Amino acid sequence: MFKSINEERKTFSRKVVEHVRELIASGQLKPGDKLPPERELAEMMNVSRPTIREAFKILSAMGFLRIRQGQGVFVADQSERLDNLASFLFMETDTIHELFEVRKMIETESAARAAQRGTPEFLEQIYRFTCDCYNRVVVHPQFATDEEREKFLSDSDQQFHLMVAEAAGNEVVVRIMTNMIDLLRLSRMRSMKIPGRVEQSLQEHMAIAEALKAKNARLARARMTNHLTGVEKALLKELEDRSKGG
After folding, report:
1. E-assigned strands of the chain?
2. Structure confidence by residue, pLDDT tens digits, 43-90
3. H runs (alpha helix) in the chain
């Protein structure tokens, strides 16, 4: 069942994670099943014990496994897995790159199409919305608690990107963006905690909105690219700094 892991671009622990997930998805490992001991599994998969230990931590964080001290490692119920998936996606640098690669594929072109296809009324609405967000957060802050501020920032960021997708006039893009919301939620929450990133993102949103209002497709595309690249770099730096500190 458990196969030897060969070296590829991905880390050994990530390969182990993917293999165990495949075994669970195929039904070869079922909820409640106990995995072999760490040493035995390392020998079976031809990797080190620290690699198995790291893979167990990742799979546990995802909700696929439950580690019970003194008892062993067990396959978790499916209902326990879903809430932790988005968190797992931001545990590795490769996945941040891949997520933002997808965002750039979709959202930069959506911004250009929004400038071309969006009605003047709707593009004006996007512009007013971004200005209002900036004023409420930066110019005249009006939040009683940090939690209230974070919720507003998360909701408004989500709404801005969905509005741009809607202005592009492609229902498939809107559906894709809607389905990506859970994956983007953690990136928003993390980026909001990076000093200066909230203000920077709001300014970038306004710059995009200005290009949309001017119906300048080239500028809208460039500014959306700049925005997504900036957030990606900030997240990667935050991940690197945290890794060095921990």
Report:
1. 65-68, 72-75
2. 999 999 999 998 898 788 777 898 998 899 999 886 655 545 545 545
3. 12-25, 38-45, 49-62, 85-89, 93-117, 120-134, 146-167, 171-192, 197-213, 217-245
